[in-house]
Amino acid sequence: MAERLHKLLAQAGLGSRREVERWIAQGLVTVNGKVAQLGDQAGPEDQVTVRGRPVSVEAPAPRVVVYHKPEGEVTTRADPEGRPTVFEHLPRLRQGRWVSIGRLDLNTSGLLLFTTDGELANRLMHPSTEVEREYAVRVLGTVEPAVIQQLLAGVTLEDGPARFDDIREAGGTGANHWYHVTLKEGRNREVRRLWESQGITVSRLIRVRYGCIQLGTGLRLGRWRELEFQEMKALYQQAGLSWKPPRKARVIRPPKTRRGAPPRR
């Protein structure tokens, strides 16, 4: 898709829009062998040079961020009831938009992934990919071993059969007991409904892992962080997609004005 040339070159990290406009005005930029003019457009298929050197005007590399969602935020772009949304706290994008990889309900906190790559989001959310979701669950009361076995074997909910793939005890005192559970689906309130099917009340629910990405302990509520190199690579592999690390664009400066040579003596 063609866009204004100065915008594309600025997005590629070659300089500010004002700098790029100056280069174009000085005749330093060509598109498909012709000297560019202010207002010209170009796309990824065009051959663009600055000072005779070819440059890439490809779309920015995809991004993925981890967001630590607090309770009380909704996973929508706008809420008719005026409640805060998770999108309000994400970094601003120069182009494109953030797509949430799955959802968390109002009373659930924890890990949410957002990406600018729609294909990645669709692959990870598709049931055929079978991405594990891990939750820390605090329940009220004692859970008998027979209940654990039933939740692992499967129960019938109003929207069909469901079960946990794994349940691990995680401590607790008094009436509160913690468990870590994993499942490969993302149906609405599925974790809560599974426990409630056995007459057990969930008092707190935190998603701590989505596929190969961990929430960790260093990310505070309401904050986000970019995925690191190895995390991006592993996440794309899990989705069955190839990922190439972004190349750093080299800043190309216009030629300096050369002063005249000093007179010979």
From TrEMBL:
Keyword presence, rRNA processing: yes
Domain RNA-binding S4: 3-60
Disordered: annotated segments: 246-265
SMART domains: S4
Keyword Calcium: no
Catalytic activity: uridine(2605) in 23S rRNA = pseudouridine(2605) in 23S rRNA
EC number: 5.4.99.-
Keywords annotated in UniProt: Isomerase, RNA-binding, rRNA processing
MF annotations from Gene Ontology: 23S rRNA pseudouridine(2605) synthase activity; RNA binding
Segment forming the signal sequence: none
Matching PANTHER family: PSEUDOURIDINE SYNTHASE FAMILY PROTEIN-RELATED, RIBOSOMAL LARGE SUBUNIT PSEUDOURIDINE SYNTHASE B
Function (record text): Responsible for synthesis of pseudouridine from uracil-2605 in 23S ribosomal RNA.
Annotated family: Belongs to the pseudouridine synthase RsuA family.
NCBIfam families: PRK10700.1 (NF007976), pseudouridine synthase (TIGR00093)
Name of the protein this chain belongs to: Pseudouridine synthase
